[in-house]
User: What shape does this take?
Amino acid sequence: MPNALTAAATGFGTGLSLIVAIGAQNAFVLRQGIRRDAVLAVVGICALSDAALIALGVGGVGAVVVAWPGALTAVGWIGGAFLLCYGVLAARRVFRPGGALRADGEAAGSRRRAVLTCLAMTWLNPHVYLDTVFLLGSIAADQGPLRWTFGLGAVLASLCWFTALGFGARLLGRVLARPAAWRVLDGLVAATMITLGVLLVAGA
Assistant: This one.
């Protein structure tokens, strides 16, 4: 039986390996961090949402949801459609750069849009449930009485990653000061989200 430190370290490593993978949520946090647009709110939403989902997985809710296959299908269609729409908007910015690509300042209402987009991108993404709830939940079950310690390690990994990604992105501010660099970033974001959206809809 692993001790508490080993369980926490295992949770941290497992959680980090799942979160670091390139995806729509990470791309969004990176872009917000570079623009310095509602970074604290976005990082907080991502970290707190992950903590809640990890708690659901460790608590065994994943097994209950799996019993209803229709849930994943519905979320797959909704999440896929959302990612496709956001990807199209990012692609539009590539060909029509404007104020939305500026890193300095915020447009009116941008914080509210950022928060709503972050919430939708987090809770409408089936991969979040598959990885955070089901996969982490099943691994945590193997930790026995220390499963919550394992979960705490995974929560810490999420907090560290999103904080580093959101606030560390500011270091790229000078590199991405030119509109051409923003267009490249938006192109990568668009490609990532459209690809994930197509995969989710196809697999639903």
